[in-house]
# Entry
Amino acid sequence: MFCKGGALNNYYNDVNTFDFSQSSWLQSFDSSNSSSDSTVSKGLIAGVTVAGIVLLLIILFLIWKFQTYLRWLVFRIHNDIWKPRTGEPIWAETSRLISQVFFLFIFIMFLYFIIRQAIKSPNVTQRIEYASATVDVPDVRFCFDGFPAQSKMIMNGDSGAPGISCMTDNGYSCTSFIQKLDMSVFQPTFSDSLGAVTCFLFRAPDAFKLTSTSGANNGSRLLFTMFGDLQTTYGRIHLSVYPKNMDPNAKVYNTNDTIPVYMSQADVLNWQTAERNDLQSENVFTIQPSTYSALSYDIVDHRYLQPVGWNYVGFLPITNSTPVIETNFRSEAPNPNYTTTHTDLGLIAVYPSSWTTLIDREVKMYTLLNALGFTGGIFSMLVAVQVWLFGFRPRSPWGVVHRWSTGSRKQSLLSGLQSKFKTTDSGIPLVHPVHHRTGEVQETEAQRVSRVEERMQVLELLFKSYYVDDEVFRSLDNANKNVGTNDNPFLASSEKVPTGNQNGFSHMFNERQSLASSSSDPNSQHLLNTGSDIHLRNDMR
# Structure
């Protein structure tokens, strides 16, 4: 059924469907399939069962195939988790692990919350202002509604045709930037339908700017004078303001200038639809004849966030820069004596609200970078609580890459340690005890000192490579070389310094040496009293 009709001021021309069974018009249609079978076939159940059995067999085969690696993995995880210190009871280590699991749960929940907050973060707009001596001018469209193309009474040679003149407050003429629009291409529609519509567009080049300071410049405001039939008191002038790069009139009427227009074809078509239906309300004003009006504006560079995933990060966001204009308008009441002293319809002054460059930057309220900062803070707090409760544990200089490496990479790490830190039967510091003995052979004092020196040398190399920065020690060595070993300013005059004929470790064994029997090895005493240092054994080279 096709129907046409109207209700008050609204007109309808649509296709609708009437349901005779319910005697009502249908607003929507719901499709349903009543013949759909909700039961599951037996074949589907059998297929799922067979697939589950096959998947279980594959998992069992993989476990049997890689059981060695799985055992090593479980053992390694166990060693990384269960680390009771020597002399520490089991309940202390158990409590530490339970607290770690609890803190890990809190950390994961907090991490989920802040990531979800960053993903669902709303966009906020920040206004940034920079002081500027010059400001761009907008595009201004004047549409004369109800004014005839020619006045019935010609005064002083003026036909009374609608027209616009432009001048700045410095006397600079900008009328050359005004062009008449071809209404045969597109004509705006106004609901009052007062009569013929004639439009003019003020579109200045990019080089034309308004200046706040006085001197040799274009001026600080635009003064538009409107002309038309003075007898047409019912006519109106509709004023529309656009940023230069967002003026659809330039595309519709093909102004043929070098100023780019960022609007897409779809945006222009939507604008034309709104113009035909008289639905434009933003930056559109109506001026009565015989009035003075003032319009202030701000051109804002609005940087919108593009809907891409990178903008959730919060670093170097991807934006679209679109100029927008903000206006304020004021118009006085018509002056009944205006036409006695003026031959124009009225005057409007257009000027910047502020002498600044305005940027509206759209940003995410919460980003992943913010989440990273929150995560670091909560993680540090949980670690501090853990240390406060169960004490500090030294961290290994090896990372995950070193600790969890396998195969040739693990072998290369071990080979590097073995080649750079060679040891003999003196043992490894902090692993083998100092009093370790291999057999019941009585050692001489020189052999004992040599063992201690080897262990100390290995310990120093390990500390230098993995634990301690030796920059200060090397600086001290360079200082001693520069000033000489005999004049050491770092040692007080009363401080005892070992003499050249005394070994650095001899004081550890002086007491034992004095109590030694006469049957001691004479070579040991000679080695302890010699002035030369005892180095690592030849087999360590």
